[in-house]
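SAMPLE LOG
Freezer: B-3
Tube label: C17
Construct: single chain, 139 aa
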Amino acid sequence: MFEHRICFNEVLGFRVESFDPAAASLSFAMRPDLVGHYLHGRLHGGVISAALDTVGGFAATVGIGEKFCGDSAIEVAHRFGRVGTVDLRVDYLQPGIGKRFLATGRITRLGGRIASAQMTLENETGVLIATGCGSYVIS
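STRUCTURE (predicted):
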């Protein structure tokens, strides 16, 4: 559902790597249409930002699933439908060079209305490309 029903995720090629509530993660491959600097073949900053935002929201969704696992599937699905970005900050640390990228989100607080997350984006060799933090409405 996350990879194909959310069309934007499919366009960027996001694949779920982990549903671990402590470190939910997504991966995607570098492609020519994701390049932001044509001379150097670097990942576009907007793709970096979108990956971090998406994994933060994904981490919030996984956290909701864990926190409310005793609720009915319909109730939990209704909660999933309310997740949305309130605030996002991205720090670009290194050029986005690589063949594959891994975005990881960690929930720092899952409140009644807002979830806070910290996110990282690394390439396949473990180089830290960018970090982010975000707030997500969850109710």
